[in-house]
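Render this sequence as a predicted structure.
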Amino acid sequence: MLIWDALIFPFKEKNSFKNFLPFIIITCICLCFSTCPALESFIKGLPVVGSILCSIIVYIICSLYPTGYLIVLCHNKINDKEEVIPKWNNFINLSMKGFSIVIITHIYLFLFSIILFLIVLLAVAIGVVFPVLSAFQDLIFILLVIILGILLISILLIVTMAYAENLDFSDAFCIYNIFSTISRNIPALLLLYFYIGILFLLFAIVSIIFWYIIKVEIVNSLVFSLIWSYFSSCIAYLAASYYLKKIC
């Protein structure tokens, strides 16, 4: 079963923990640093522009290595390599891969934010041009946002896997191939979302259990970061496995 395989993949390879455990620890440190109360209070004390810029810089720096590691993990799985878990100590290469996918993701988010703005204008225009439909204006807007949200998730997923397959920046912007892949695999993608939803549910259950067991906030933050580091790698492995078997 794909979900079970995703949950146990770090234990299947010989000496895999030698590379996977350091990744978990480094990712945990990055998460703890980015959510550190002292850092948050420092950022809040800055002027508005400085606070925004500092938040963006901290987010990018702390996400580069973990994101790059997961991308290379997906690359190894999609290409069915014998060793799926990447070496943990290639910091520059992994961070560059992470930087690439951060840039790709934010380009698409920017484009979709423009589309969302146009949808808002469209919803307002419908109410003005067709007063009869003004009662359904909010419903139309909500439906369009939901459809756009599902489309955005699908595109980001396929774009990420397309980049991970060959680690080629240009593959993420082959618009025709991306939409063609989505249109041909709508049932498979919906099933994948269901599997990912189960993993998120397991993550939430485990996090809540530890939250109630451990009463110290700092320890809770550390444990939450460790759990998320593990489950994020499971989600990446699941997506890459499914992409290889059902979509690729």
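Summary. The chain has one domain: 16-247. The mean pLDDT is 82.
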